[in-house]
Amino acid sequence: MRRISRITVAGAATASLALALSACGGTSTSASSESKDGDKGLAIAYDVGGKGDQSFNDAAYAGLEQAKKEFGYDTQDVEPTEGETDADKEQRLVSLAKQGYNPVIGVGYAYATAVKGAAEKFPDTTFGIVDDSTVEAKNVTDLVFSEEEASYLAGVAAAKTTKTNTVGFVGGVDIPLIHKFQAGFEQGVKDTNPQAKVLTQYLTQTAEEGGFASPDKGKSAAEGQIEKKADVVYAAAGLSGQGVIEAAAANKVWAIGVDSDQYNQEALAKYKDSILTSAMKDVAKAVYNLAKSVEDGKPETGIVRGDLKTGEVGLSNSNPKFADNAEVQEAIKTAKEKIISGEIKVKTS
């Protein structure tokens, strides 16, 4: 059952939703015109790249859609705006909380300051943030993942698949979060094939420069690595990763996707035969679980981590050529078991 205080707040604000949110980022069409019993539930605010990135943000949206379907309540998802500040992000979250949405989730580490500020203003609303563990408050849930573990397995897959002993890593932005992907991948490659070389390139130093939202930058970086004989390229670059996948397909080498199962993404369908696997983290499940905890009246709080042991990170097996390769699958299975047991300690930087 939803809490009465939330129902009351939600009912008072429906008419002003579009106006309030238009001042701090575009809205999507996911909110229904009438919510069940006037009740409102999960709202998410996207990271750079927005909905349609076939990766990180779309995974969050999948969690929202699951919650909407199961709980029958009104939801909202809001796009970022170019060049926005922390104050803009906080205004977006505050606006959603004022409407009565609960929980309200900022999708991406860039929302840390905004979540902290909004949570202080609305102590009875549960806030979530994906990919950040720095916000400490009784009404905030930090949804984080051991990306390095899935990336290690991606490194094993790359090392077992390469014919040139050269593979590539393309990071969207040069930040600690993406260093985790790089570190795990490089370790997995080297532990599996010490002779293999890993080429690494970051697209930008800051997110504002478009590192997570520029397929053209991703394509150019991948093409440079392919020219240097990389025949497997792993991208942790959000929307920019689409360019990496496009370059891999054009040059008939392998790409490894990230966050979502990119082999099954409709927008990437024409490139799917070049997507070996994807290093996934179940953002959808994390988003849904937080919504369910609020719906059940027992909101999650603190750091909630998904890893190989919980099954919330791992590799996709959608590509039959990957799934049916017994040698690769055995190597991945062995590495996974060793990581879970603690025999392999995966680096984060």
Beta-strand residue fraction? 15-25%
Number of helices: 12
Q: Going across the major beta sheet, what is the strand order?
A: 2-1-3-4-5-11
Poorly predicted ranges: 1-38
Counting DSSP E segments of at least 2 residues, the number of strands comes to: 12
The radius of gyration computed from the alpha-carbon positions, rounded to a whole number of angstroms, is: 20 Å
What's the shape?
A: globular
Structural class: alpha/beta
Helix content: 40-55%
Order of helices and strands: HHEHEHEHEEHEHEHEHEEHEEHH
Q: Main beta sheet: strand number and arrangement?
A: 6 strands, parallel
Q: Please state the average pLDDT score.
A: 89
Distance between the termini: 43 Å
Write up this protein.
Helix 3 packs parallel to helix 10, helix 4 (86-99) crosses helix 5 (112-121) and helix 6 runs parallel beside helix 7. Helices cover 41% and strands 19% of the residues. The N and C termini lie far apart (43 Å). The strands form two sheets. A six-stranded parallel beta sheet has the order 2-1-3-4-5-11, with helices on both faces. Strands 7-6-8-9-10-12 form a six-stranded mixed beta sheet, sandwiched between helices. With 349 residues, the protein is an alpha/beta fold.
